[in-house]
C-alpha cells in the first residue's frame, strides 16, 4: 500500500509526504511522555476516564459519549464492526482507511466521484446522489484528504438533514479540522445539530505531529451507538503515554492558534513559489494547484515529479493510488519556509 512517510524504504532528507504539523511539538507534550516513564509497570486506565473528561469539557458533552482509540483508524474500525453497515457511500478521492475498515466487515461501497473542474468540492449534485442512495452509512472528511477542501456549511446542513430523515449514520473525519482558521465556527455549527446518527472522529496525530503516539477519539450523539462502538474497541487500546499526552494536548489552545497562522502564511508562500516555478520551468508549465484549507496542497503535472524529487532525497506523496485521481497527482505538506525553499530550488532544476 502506498502511503506518506515511507522513509524506511527511501533515502529521504526532506519529507513532504506526511501531512503533519511542522511546528515543534510543545515542550509540555514531551514532558508528559518523560513523566509517564515511571508508570510503564502499571496498566493504563482501561476507561481513559481522565482524558475523556478533559475532552468532554473541550466539546461540551458528556464524557461517556467520547471514546478514545489507538489513532483515528482504531475508531473507524470499531465503528465499522459496531454498526455493521450493509452499504456505505464514499467520496473519491478521499482517505483509504475507510475502505479498509468497511472491507473488514464485508460492507458494500457506493462511490461519488468529486469533479476536478469543481476543485473536488462537494456540491448539490452529491446531495442529490445521497438522497437517492440506499446506503446506511456515509463517510465525509472535513477538510478532505488529499484535496484539502472543506464542505460548505450550507451543503453540510443539507447532508445532515438528508441523513437524519433517512436514518443514515454520518461519520465525519475531522482529523485535519484543527488546521482550519474557522474551526470555532465549524464546531459551533456541528454542535447546533443534535443528530443521534452523527459521529465525529478526531486525532492529535496531525496537529501535534505525534504519529508515533497513536491517539484518536470519537464524539458520539447517541448512547446506543457509542455502546455498540465501545464493545468493538480492544481492552487497554490507549497507552499510558498516549493518555498523558492527550491530557496535556487538551490545554494547548495557544499552540493550535499559532500553528494555524504559520500554516496559512507558509502555505501561501509555497503556492506562490510553485506558481513561480510553473512560469519558469518548461517541464512544469502544466502545473495545477488545487485550493486547500488544510496543511497540505494537491497538485497535478504530467512530469514525473515523485521520481525527480526522490533522486534529490525529497519525498512527496504520490496520489495515483487514490480512487478518483490519475497518475500525476501529488500531495505536498506545508513545512517551514527553509524546507519549502529547498523544495522550490530543486523544482527549479526540472
Overall description:
This protein starts with 13 loop residues before the first strand and ends with a helix. Mean pLDDT is about 95; it is low at about 1-5. It has two domains: about 15-25 and about 255-345, Alpha-Beta Complex (Aspartate Aminotransferase, domain 1); about 25-250, Aspartate Aminotransferase, domain 2, CATH 3.40.640.10. Strand 6 (about 170-175), helix 7 and strand 7 form a beta-alpha-beta unit. It has helices at about 25-35, 50-60, 70-85, 95-105, 125-130, 155-165, 185-190, 225-230, 240-250, 255-280, 305-310, 335-345; strands at about 15, 65-70, 85-90, 110-115, 135-140, 170-175, 200-205, 215-220, 290, 295-300, 315, 315-320, 330-335. The chain is globular. Helix 3 packs parallel to helix 4 (about 95-105) and helix 3 (about 70-85) packs across helix 8. The protein has about 350 residues and is of the alpha/beta class. About 40% of the residues lie in helices and about 15% in strands. The strands form three sheets. It has a seven-stranded mixed beta sheet, sandwiched between helices. The protein has a four-stranded antiparallel beta sheet with strand order 9-10-13-12, with helices on one face. Pfam families: Aminotran_1_2. It comes from Lachnobacterium bovis. Its cofactor is pyridoxal 5'-phosphate.
CATH topology description of the largest domain: Aspartate Aminotransferase, domain 2
| CATH architecture assignment name of the largest domain | 3-Layer(aba) Sandwich
Question: For the report, how would you describe the main beta sheet?
Answer: 7 strands, mixed
Number of domains: 2
CATH H-level superfamily title of the largest domain: Type I PLP-dependent aspartate aminotransferase-like (Major domain)
Helix fraction bin: 25-40%
> Helix and strand succession?
EHHEHEHEHEHEHEEHHHEEHEEEH
Widest beta sheet: strand line-up: 2-8-7-6-5-3-4
Estimate the mean pLDDT confidence.
96
What general form does the structure show?
globular
SS-based structural class? Answer: alpha/beta
Q: Count every beta strand, where a strand is a DSSP E run of 2 or more residues.
A: 13
N-to-C CA distance: 28 Å
| Strand content bin | 15-25%
Radius of gyration: 20 Å
Which CATH class of the largest domain applies here? Alpha Beta
Low-confidence segments, given as residue ranges, are 1-5
Count helical runs: 12
Keywords: Aminotransferase, Pyridoxal phosphate, Transferase
Pfam family, one: Aminotran_1_2
Protein name: Aminotransferase class I and II
InterPro entries: Aminotransferase_I/II_large, PyrdxlP-dep_Trfase, PyrdxlP-dep_Trfase_major, PyrdxlP-dep_Trfase_small
Amino acid at each position: 500500500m502506498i502511503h506518506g512517510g515511507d522513509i524506511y524504504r527511501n533515502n529521504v532528507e526532506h519529507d513532504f509526504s506526511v501531512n503533519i504539523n511542522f511546528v515543534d511539538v510543545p515542550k509540555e507534550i514531551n514532558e508528559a511522555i518523560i513523566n509517564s516513564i515511571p508508570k510503564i509497570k502499571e496498566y493504563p486506565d482501561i476507561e481513559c476516564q481522565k482524558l475523556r473528561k478533559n475532552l468532554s469539557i473541550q466539546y461540551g458533552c458528556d464524557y461517556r459519549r467520547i471514546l478514545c482509540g489507538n489513532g483515528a483508524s482504531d475508531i473507524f474500525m470499531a465503528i465499522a464492526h459496531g454498526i455493521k453497515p450493509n452499504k456505505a457511500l464514499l467520496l473519491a478521492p478521499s482517505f483509504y482507511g475507510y475502505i479498509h475498515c468497511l472491507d473488514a466487515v464485508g460492507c458494500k461501497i457506493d462511490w461519488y466521484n468529486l469533479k476536478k473542474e469543481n476543485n473536488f468540492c462537494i456540491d448539490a449534485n452529491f446531495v442529490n446522489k445521497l438522497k437517492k442512495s440506499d446506503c446506511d452509512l456515509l463517510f465525509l472528511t472535513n477538510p478532505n484528504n488529499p484535496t484539502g477542501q472543506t464542505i460548505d456549511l450550507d451543503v453540510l446542513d443539507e447532508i445532515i438533514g438528508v441523513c437524519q430523515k433517512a436514518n443514515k449514520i454520518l461519520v465525519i473525519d475531522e482529523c485535519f479540522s484543527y488546521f482550519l482558521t474557522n474551526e470555532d465556527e465549524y464546531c459551533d455549527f456541528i454542535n447546533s445539530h443534535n443528530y443521534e446518527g452523527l459521529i465525529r472522529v478526531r486525532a492529535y496525530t496531525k496537529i501535534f505531529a505525534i504519529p508515533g503516539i497513536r491517539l484518536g477519539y470519537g464524539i458520539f450523539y447517541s448512547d446506543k451507538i457509542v455502546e455498540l462502538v465501545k464493545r468493538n474497541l480492544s481492552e487497554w487500546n490507549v497507552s499510558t503515554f498516549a493518555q498523558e499526552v492527550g491530557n496535556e494536548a487538551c490545554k494547548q489552545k495557544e499552540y493550535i492558534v499559532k500553528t494555524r497562522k504559520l500554516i496559512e502564511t507558509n502555505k501561501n508562500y509555497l503556492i506562490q513559489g510553485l506558481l513561480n516555478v510553473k512560469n519558469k520551468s518548461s517541464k512544469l508549465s502544466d502545473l495545477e494547484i488545487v485550493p486547500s484549507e488544510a496543511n497540505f496542497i494537491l497538485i497535478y503535472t504530467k512530469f514525473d515529479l515523485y521520481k525527480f524529487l526522490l533522486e534529490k532525497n525529497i519525498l512527496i506523496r504520490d496520489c495515483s493510488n487514490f480512487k478518483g485521481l490519475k497518475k500525476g497527482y501529488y500531495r505536498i505538506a506545508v513545512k517551514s519556509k527553509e524546507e519549502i525553499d529547498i523544495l522550490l530550488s530543486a523544482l527549479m532544476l526540472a
